[in-house]
Amino acid sequence: MAAEFGYAGKILRVDLSSASMSDVPTSDYADRFIGGRGIAAKIYWDEVPREANAFDPENRLIFMTGPLAGYPGIAGSRSLICGKAAFTDPGKFYYGTMGGSWGAHLKFAGYDGVVVYGKSEKPVYILIQDGTAELRDASALWGKGAIEARDLLKGELGKSAKVLTTGPAGENMVTFATTLAEEDSAAQGAAIMGSKKLKAVVVSGKSSRLPPANPEKLAELQKYLKGVGYGSAPWSERRDRPLFVEKKQICYGCVKGCDRVTLETADGIKTKIVCAAQGVYRAANTYYKEQTEVPFHATMLCHNYGLEARTLGAIMSWLMAGYKAGYLTEESTELPLSQYGSWEFFETLVKKISLREGFGDILSQGLHRTIDAVGGKAKELIPVYLDDKGQSMGFGPREYNITGLFSATQARVGRITNEISAASGWWAKWHNGEEGSGAYLSYDMLRELGRRFWGSELTFDFSTYEGKAIAAKNLQDKLYATECLILCAFFYPLRYCDYTETHEGDPTIESKLYSAVTGNETDEEELNRIGERVFNLERAILAREDPAGKKVDAIPEWNYTVPVEFDHHVPGLIVPGKDGEPITKKGNVVDREKFAQMLSEYYEVRGWDKSGLQTKQKLVDLDLADIAEGLAKRGLIAETAALGVEYSLEAAKL
Ligand code: SF4
User: Cα of 77 to ligand 1 centre, how many Å?
Assistant: First the structure.
């Protein structure tokens, strides 16, 4: 099938070692994997050797859009960056998505994606204009901050040029370095850019809209989306920001925007503040002094240097805990720890990490590696629990048991965990009598949401481990499909609707949008099936890369041993229990035996064997015979699926 509607039609391949470029048709991938996460994972499976390290020329840096990018009124213009990331040893498959407008403009410039490999000898940037691409010298930009580099490139190429770049942290291969694109959108992957000496990818094209296959149907859906509204995340509090002019900032093609805003100082400096960035610096600055511009400028500094805020937040908390305990000193770290929360502290920390100077070089590898390198009491002083990327974990399985299945089986869990925590947060609002204060869900509505969307009325009953395996599978399949389309996580799945009596959303909307834009008539079930295919493809990648020689599905040991006392997103640690009765999770740990049983049920509903190996039959059924063949060569395929619930405590141990 030619990928006609919804696609620019080609993917750019750039070999930086030989400074050569070529195009491949998007249709080589689009039939089975749609776009975004699916196509990126297939390219990764085909091209990134298991043995390659993150900074080897063989690693790929893959930029992808989805078929809905560039269409207005959908909130489907996000883009995705994928490659082998450097925050674990050995490196592992990872991806991140970003909003803004860069992805839509990549498509307007004539490409659905860009695959970069090899390594350039000197700094370069890729310029894609109206269907053609070239490599240009970026020596004059190397060493510059991302904001400065973006401004310089726009100055040279004109305002229509849309820039994705990185700052010194990316150039210096700080493991948690981020890119910076239009509207200050960011995603991880910049360390790979640095390793390839790639400073930027600039896209410029005529903003001619791509025609949808079914304009009438698409217009109908756009109208519907405009009217439905949705529940913003219950933890995204509106803050009083008297020091700034605050303006809503909407990504290209969004329906009506969200909490994404820009703040502007009195002297006209502005940046985007949303999610991690706004929380991390405010928390630290509040520790020092209320209401200053420090969090704002700290955010800009991180954008400019290219540092990811959540990882930096975990590092800052650890530094402060170590300093208070007398374990870390200003002398040993060469950081002004006594000035925590001040501008001086932020600036010194950000620069030392980004330029990898002194103790900053150790911190540049992420907190999980820092505590190993420092040794001694370093581990005991971690005030937050970390995942394998060195980021703090929230909404974990001690509070919401189902999220343990996501942590155990996925490369990245933020988005899917939010599906559980957002709905539970809306229930908490209802339980606390906050109806009328935005989105809320009674337990009856929550149960119905679980049934209609996730196939289990027990999805949100956290008094039991029952009913979670099937819900986890359905959640994963739908969200993987959603990330092939790269629909915005703030809007999709459309599980909540502000303005209808029942607040019921529509689980079929993604498939309707995909059908209207591409003309590939696909219903909800078929789209979820594609999500299942992509999930299994990603599973194969994780199995191939796991240092244990097969995919080990485990959650960190502390979930079983350390009682949860606090989660600032779950007030009082109150969650819905049986029939919606509120229960507290304070002091809770994950039940090892029940978790193991839940994992075994999950393997069964996935059609895998009892140890979590994918079966040949399942992969063939999912049109993944080629992936089954690749796994078979490594002895990573099973002949028989698990039947009946068998489980092993070993399987649930880290
Ligand atoms: S809901 Fe927010 S983050 Fe999502 S596309 Fe719209 S503006 Fe961007």
Answer: 9
| pLDDT of 240 above 60 | no
Of the candidates 482, 411, 475, 413, the residue with the CA atom closest to the CA atom of residue 66: 482
The rounded Å distance from CA 236 to ligand 1 centre is: 14
Q: Which atom of ligand 1 has the smallest separation from the CA of 256?
A: 6
- Compute, in angstroms, the gap from residue 490 CA to the centroid of ligand 1: 6
For 85, 200, 369, 541, the CA distances from 93, given in Å and listed in that order, are 6, 22, 18, 7
CA 260 / ligand 1 centre spacing (Å): 7
List pLDDT tens digits, range 480-491. 999 999 999 888
274 C-alpha vs ligand 1 centroid, how far in Å? 10
Ligand 1 centroid – CA 505 distance (Å): 18
Atom of ligand 1 nearest to the CA of 491: 1
**113: amino acid identity, one letter:** G
Mutate to test the pocket of ligand 1, among 225, 260, 275, 278 (most ligand atoms within 8 A of CB): 260
Segment 425-446 shows an average pLDDT of: 81
User: What global pTM score does this model have?
Assistant: 0.92
Integer Cα distance of 458 and 467 in angstroms: 5
From 418, 491, 492, 496, give the residue whose CB has the most ligand 1 atoms within 8 Å, as the site to mutate: 491
Q: Which of 40-44, 133-137, 248-252 shows the lowest mean pLDDT across its residues?
A: 248-252
DSSP-assigned letters across all residues of 237-301: -----TTSEEEE---TT-SS--S-EEEE-TTS-EEEE-HHHHHHHHHHHHHH-SS-SHHHHHHHH
pLDDT tens for residues 157-183? 998 999 999 999 999 999 999 999 988
Instruction: Report pLDDT for 3.
Output: 56
**Ligand 1 pocket by Cβ (under 6 Å):** 75, 99, 250-251, 254, 257-258, 260, 488, 490-491
Question: Bridge partners of 21?
Answer: 14
Q: How many Cβ atoms are within 10 Å of 464's Cβ, its own excluded?
A: 13
pLDDT of residue 381 exceeding 80, the answer is no
Please choose, from the candidates 68, 69, 131, the residue with its C-alpha nearest in 3D space to the C-alpha of residue 100: 69
Tell me the best of 97, 226, 258 to mutate to test the pocket of ligand 1, counting ligand atoms within 8 Å of each CB and taking the most: 258
| Pairing relationship of beta strands 504-506 and 574-576 according to DSSP bridges | unpaired
Over the stretch 303-316, which tens digit does the pLDDT of each residue have?
999 998 888 888 88
Greater confidence, 16 or 275? 16
Per mean pLDDT, which of 207-211, 435-439, 447-451 is the most reliable? 447-451
